[in-house]
Design a protein that fits this description.
The protein is an alpha/beta fold and about 625 residues long. Among the domains are: about 260 residues, Rhopdopsin 7-helix transmembrane proteins (Up-down Bundle); about 130 residues, Response regulator (Rossmann fold). The chain contains 16 helices and 17 strands. Helix 1 packs antiparallel against helix 2. The chain is elongated. The N and C termini lie far apart (about 75 Å).
Length: about 625
């Protein structure tokens, strides 16, 4: 009977391993359950073919047989089960003091249990057995605390049912079956035979290791799906355990949230392949994804799903963590003029925008570079990663000649209080990534921004771009930058915007703060559509001029038309912190011009060597 049971256990172990492999490729799978299943597979294999060979079974001089293979398997698998138990949700990246306490007490339980099994009958045997039970009691206590905390932390419904079943299996096998089999088996009172003990242990292993691990795997999948659909919204509750009281942050759905609920940031999950794969499955099933975790929606419907899979969060085509954005001009070229004519958008004067994107969405700067090229007038875009430098950049932007039209920020910052701080300083705020059906729609609306732009796409004709252009036109009209009644520069002649006068060329740089140049000085003109000789082709279609030379403009553009990152030849460009009418062609300016021209020449040479020209 034990032999047949071992073969059944072997077959079940192989099937479970195959299932874990499938899950690892298509959704997610933790290392703990896979490791335990592998150890169990090797254990039953040895039991089938060499159970009674030494040293798998130790034969003592006293005549006792000790199933050393069983204790070896326990020493290899049980610590990993407790590691899994200490992080049932799978959201933690590390282990804490609770994990260490579980492991220390387990090792004491197993070591003293093996000593008891190898001792001949007498007081030493039962003394070791008692010590092992004391250690075991601590394991149960700390484990029960973990189960109670996890039960109140996970969402209501299936997740809590899974936790209850896991706890029932754990305490039934670890707390009743194994100690009872030890006491009744050959290691203890010798009330049951060696073969019957092996048979019953095999059955218990199927429940305590394979079934428990499979349920733990399913619990993590449920939690992943909850976060992907609703975000990580927590509400703190008090839970009693023994004489202690624990504070547990319970995961809830948006409709359960009240003023005490806390919405935790979810950007840390963006680079986890498990979240990306499960998100793809949910999207294929037609499920709505929490906006901050739905990168595909930022690309529009034409590129979100290609070749049978969605774009990966770690796509090498986008900037990595070392990427540092620099200011650039966007809009005012053919693409912007065509988009404005087709959509009947209001005309704009040249202006300046601070773009704020989250730390985990650095790639969005490049995404916005192409999207904002559809603006009907040239705008200087000053990108910043994270919210740390926003207040300094906006202060410099508002005091610089030409002023600052708005701060364009990701909807993530609607919950940080940054919007109200900017509004108190009189800065216009536009939030992109808004969706009326999103779980955080009410929170974004309550932030108090001047304008909410739907979606993340600023493609020509998109609602987001139309709303942004309308907002910018209102801001410029209020500031008196549209003296001709609303027909701003937009790459056309006639009617200069307030603060932008002079020769028909883009303004030179005047100062730099934290990598963001404050350009467009008081003498700068309303930039016209750039000549064809210095335009670059946009990857989104059409052309746009006045672009950053570090991103594709040939160096000849700096000679034909002074502009971004080029030194002025003459004029009265005024630094933000300088006098009202200084000369920009002093010795320092000449040296800076020479250095920048040398840098542009080196870049052009490098591009030529790489075969990009």
């Amino acid at each position: 009977m034990a032999y047949v049971t071992n073969w059944i256990a072997f077959a079940i172990s192989i099937v479970v391993l195959a299932w874990y492999a499938y899950e690892a490729l298509h959704s997610a799978c933790g290392w703990e359950e896979v490791y335990v299943c592998v150890i169990e597979t090797f254990n039953v294999t040895f039991e089938i073919f060499a159970e009674f060979e030494e040293p798998l079974t130790v034969y003592l001089s006293s005549g006792m047989r000790v199933p050393f293979l069983r204790y070896t398997e326990w020493l290899l698998s049980c610590p990993v089960i407790l590691i899994h138990l200490s992080n049932l949700s799978g959201l933690s990246d590390g282990y804490n003091k609770r994990t260490m306490l579980l492991l220390v007490t387990l090792i004491g339980c197993l070591v003293t249990g093996v000593y008891s099994a190898m001792c001949y009958y007498g007081w030493i045997k039962w003394a070791m057995y008692t010590v092992s039970c004391i250690y075991c009691a601590f394991v149960y206590w700390y484990s029960a605390k973990v189960y109670v905390e996890t039960y109140h932390m996970v969402p209501k419904g299936r997740a809590r049912t899974v936790v209850l079943v896991m706890a029932s299996i754990f305490f039934t096998t670890w707390g009743i079956v194994y100690p009872l089999l030890f006491a009744l088996g050959p290691e203890g009172l010798n009330a049951i035979s060696f073969h019957l003990s092996n048979f019953l242990h095999c059955i218990a292993d199927l429940f305590s290791k394979l079934l428990w691990g499979a349920l733990g795997h399913q619990l993590r999948i449920i939690i992943h799906k909850h976060i992907l659909q609703y975000g990580d919204i927590r509400k703190k509750t008090k839970v009693g355990f023994g004489t202690d009281e624990m504070e547990v942050a319970t995961m809830i759905e948006p409709e359960e949230a009240d003023e005490t609920a806390e919405r935790l940031p979810v950007e840390k999950y963006l680079r986890r392949p498990s979240f990306a794969r499960i998100r793809n499955q949910l999207k294929q099933q037609g499920k709505d994804i929490y906006p901050d975790l739905d990168r595909d929606s930022m690309y529009g419907s034409n590129s979100s799903y290609t070749g049978g899979r969605y774009l990966d969060f770690a796509d090498p085509d986008f900037p990595d963590d070392n990427y540092t954005p620099i200011p650039f001009f966007a809009g005012g070229g053919d693409l912007g003029l065509q988009a404005a004519a087709a959509a009947g958008s209001p005309q704009l004067a040249p202006g300046r925008i601070v773009l704020v994107v989250p730390e985990t969405a650095r790639w969005m700067v490049e995404f916005m570079r192409h999207g904002l090229s559809a603006l009907p007038a040239p705008f200087e875009i000053i990108p910043t990663i994270g919210g740390g430098a926003v207040m300094q950049l906006t202060q410099m932007g508002t005091t610089a000649p030409g002023g600052l039209e708005a701060v364009l920020m990701h909807s993530y910052y609607a919950r940080t209080g940054l919007v109200s701080k900017l509004r108190m300083r009189g800065v216009h705020v536009v939030i992109f990534g808004y969706s009326p059906s999103a779980p955080d729609a009410a929170e974004v609306q309550a932030a108090g921004a001047d304008q909410l732009c739907e979606g993340y796409s600023m493609a020509p004709g998109s609602n987001g771009l139309k709303q942004l252009i309308s907002a910018l036109a209102n801001f410029q009209a209020q500031a008196g930058k549209l003296p001709d009644g609303g027909s701003g520069g937009a790459g056309r002649t006639g009617g200069a915007a307030a603060g932008f006068t002079g020769s028909p060329s883009p303004p030179p740089p005047s100062s730099t703060y934290g990598g963001a140049s404050m350009m467009m000085a008081a003498s700068a003109p309303p930039p016209q559509a750039a000549p064809a000789s210095i335009r670059m082709t946009s990857t989104t279609g059409g052309t746009f001029g006045i672009s950053n030379p570090l991103f594709g403009m040939p160096p000849v553009a700096q000679e034909l038309q002074p502009g971004l990152y080029s030194a002025p030849r003459s004029g009265t460009a005024t630094p933000p912190n300088g006098p009202a009418g200084g000369n920009a062609t002093g010795d320092g300016g000449a040296a800076e011009a020479a250095m920048l021209q040398s840098l542009l020449g080196e870049i052009a040479k490098l591009r030529s060597e790489l075969g990009e020209n």
